[in-house]
Design brief:
InterPro entries: OMP_Chaperone_SurA, PPIase_dom_sf, PPIase_PpiC, PPIase_PpiC_CS, PPIase_SurA, SurA_N, Trigger_fact/SurA_dom_sf. By secondary structure, this protein is α+β, with helices and mostly antiparallel strands. It has 15 helices and eleven strands. A hairpin with a 2-residue loop joins strand 1 (52-56) and strand 2. The radius of gyration is 24 Å and the shape is globular.
Length: 489
């Protein structure tokens, strides 16, 4: 039985999300801060003489910081040809985004989540390779676009940090049962038969990639029935404006409560299976450029725009396929995969265990193993992973089961070989490869694909719900909206 403990709970990392979503250097660079020569927003309201824009728990966001970020947002909107909202509205939107970023910073610090230079360099290399560029060429192209390389790296670092937060606080809590996988595959098989036979209920093929934007009218946790009704009326009014010709991006920038509001509501392009079921169903019959009706989730009321659809057929199956052919390929023959059985010792960083001490402890354990002590015994005594009682044994792992940092280090080892100390989003590892085998995994691969698709549909809504709870439990004193001040519960 394949283990699904911490190490094997792999989801889309920040870099993989960028690549699968078809994000190129130009798209990413286009969202960076523009030069400081951009148009300045209106002067700050004179009543804020204390220089404080907001307090988030015990952390202050100053008016100077707000002004700087508002300048960047103004330039970003101009680069995207999105009309900027009026000064006061824009400042409120920017401040809301800064409050969310501050909450994420605080939570990452609490969980001792840090992103080092090596992780950023690895992400840059992956993006460059995806675009057939060297890292130096990527940097040159980004600078040529008018963005600053340092800003690009800063945003990329935040994406990696947020992805690690998802791993830690949300994705480890999402479980997909075997019964759900069975049901998914059964429905998929039924749909394929109807399509092949031209039977009743036949649907057009789903696009492989889907680009969406949204306008979100958020509903606070614990809102009364009258508040929900008022917010629904607001959302319906926004939908009416869109139906009578209002520009979606401009309306999102001025009225959406979503984190992507200042990008015109753009959420990017992802594989269809990476979107929540609610969104997929809402836009199933919506043409490119069209807008959905009003849809309600646990976060509030959404209006979804279909920005782009990428329709293409899966690759033609061949006799011997591999798991690397991609998540959208549907194998119809043997899928020969090289599996690895490995053990590991995990030490997690914490306030009581700094990263330096974690690395030092694993280096000491590595020396003891090289001197003849049993890896299994030391894993049972020192590893902080669920595999510790089994001597760190992770069972047979298929490519894609492990988080990328762990898998790369494991793949570089020969059977019987011991790794150097390796960092992943879960902590620091010492890895030993026991053996490898090649196996036909056609059935397992189909189930793995189904499980991953179901998992991805739940991950983003779960993270948004967690973020809403984090926001609702914090002390936030927003000086631009004094009525929103509240204390942490």
């Amino acid at each position: 039985m394949m283990s699904f403990d911490h190490v094997m709970r792999r989801t889309l990392s920040a870099t993989v999300c960028l690549l699968l979503a078809g994000t190129t250097w130009a798209q990413t660079a286009g969202k960076q801060a523009a030069p400081q020569a951009a148009a300045q927003p209106a002067a700050q309201p004179s009543q804020f003489v204390d220089g404080i824009a907001a307090i988030v728990n015990k952390q202050v966001i100053t008016l100077r910081q707000l002004e700087q970020e508002t300048n960047k947002a103004t330039a970003q909107l101009a680069r995207q040809n999105i009309p900027a909202p009026e000064g006061d509205i824009l400042r409120k939107q920017v401040l809301q985004r800064m409050i969310i970023d501050t909450l994420l910073d605080q939570e990452a610090e609490r969980l001792n989540i840090k992103v080092n230079d090596a992780q950023v360099e690895s992400a840059v290399l992956s993006i460059a390779r995806r675009n057939n560029l060297t890292p130096d060429q990527l940097r040159a192209e980004i600078n040529k676009s008018g963005a600053q390389w340092e800003d690009y790296l800063g945003d990329l670092k935040l994406e990696i940090r947020n992805d690690q937060l998802r791993h830690r606080v949300v994705e480890n809590q999402i479980m997909v049962s075997d019964a759900e996988v069975d049901s998914f595959l059964k429905n998929q098989h039924r749909g394929n038969r109807l399509s092949a036979l031209g039977g009743a209920g036949q649907q057009a093929p789903e696009p492989l990639m889907l680009g969406l934007s949204q306008i979100l009218v958020a509903v606070p946790e614990g809102a009364s029935a009258s508040q929900v009704a008022q917010l629904r009326a607001k959302a319906e009014s926004l939908l009416q404006r869109l139906n009578t010709g209002a520009d979606f991006a401009a309306l999102a920038a001025s009225a959406s409560d979503g984190p992507e509001a200042l990008k015109g509501g753009e959420m990017g392009m992802r594989p269809v299976d990476g979107w929540p079921d609610l969104f997929i169903e809402a836009v199933r019959q919506v043409p490119e450029g069209g807008v959905s009706g009003l849809i309600q989730s646990g976060n509030g009321f959404h209006i979804i725009k279909v920005v782009s659809r990428a329709d293409s057929s899966p690759p033609v199956a061949v006799a011997n396929q591999t798991a690397e052919q991609g998540a959208n390929a549907a194998p119809t023959g043997p899928v020969m995969v090289t599996q690895t059985r490995a053990r590991h010792i995990l030490i997690k960083a914490s306030p009581a265990m700094t990263e330096e001490r974690a690395v030092q402890r694993l280096e000491q354990l590595r020396q003891r193993i090289e001197m003849g002590e049993s890896f299994d015994d030391l894993a049972r005594r020192y590893s902080e992973d669920a595999s510790a009682p089994q001597g760190g044994d992770l069972g047979w792992a298929t490519p894609g089961d492990m988080v990328p940092q762990f898998e790369q280090a494991m793949d570089a080892l020969q059977p019987g070989q011991l790794s150097p100390v390796v960092q992943s989003p879960f902590g620091w590892h010492l890895i030993k490869v026991e053996e490898r085998r090649t196996k036909d995994m056609e059935d397992e691969y189909r189930r793995m694909q189904a499980r991953q698709q179901l998992f991805q549909r739940r991950a983003e809504p779960a993270f948004e719900e967690w973020l809403g709870q984090l926001h609702g439990q914090a002390f936030i004193d927003n000086r631009l909206e004094p009525q929103s001040r509240r204390r942490a519960r």
